[in-house]
Amino acid sequence: MTAQLMLEAAKDLEDLELPRNAYFNMEIWGQHPQCSGEPQLDNLCGTTACAAGWLSLMPKWRARGFKSKWHGSRTLGWELRACERNEDWEALAVNVFGNKAGKAMSQIFGETWLNKEDAIKRIRESAYVLEERPS
Q: What is the C-alpha separation between 83 and 101, in angstroms, rounded?
């Protein structure tokens, strides 16, 4: 089941159509430029985020508990952080994907040199490894 969730996450990232002036960047959990207020899920133009950040903004993954919250201000800009019980991204991934898959996802989230396609590929490869070695 956890490998299936990873494959689902990879597919959702693959299907992700970035909003206007938005970017995929594994070096940044999530960042939004200075604006008139906190970024809203229906208006993310100008947002830059990594795989974890973009997943955490998707309603489907938020409903599963993989949520984030914007912190910042109109003058300084906004930063995306894991928001469940002050967890970090790894704890959040373990909570949603399970222990082994969550740790694998967290490791991928930390691979800052990956582009979108490579991040998706790494998620799929890790899912296949988990499928071959059940817990």
A: 20
- Could you list the residue range(s) of the whole structural domain that residue 38 is in? 2-132
Q: Is 96 exposed, middle or buried (0-12, 13-18, 19+ CB in 10 A)?
A: buried
- At 86-105, the pLDDT tens digits run 567 788 888 888 888 888 88
**Assessment of whether the complete model's pTM goes beyond 0.90:** no
Collapsing DSSP states into helix, strand and coil, what is residue 9?
A: helix
The residues near 65 (Cβ < 8 Å, ≥ 6 apart) are 84, 92, 95, 96
Indicate the SS3 state at residue 135.
coil
Domain count, the chain: 1
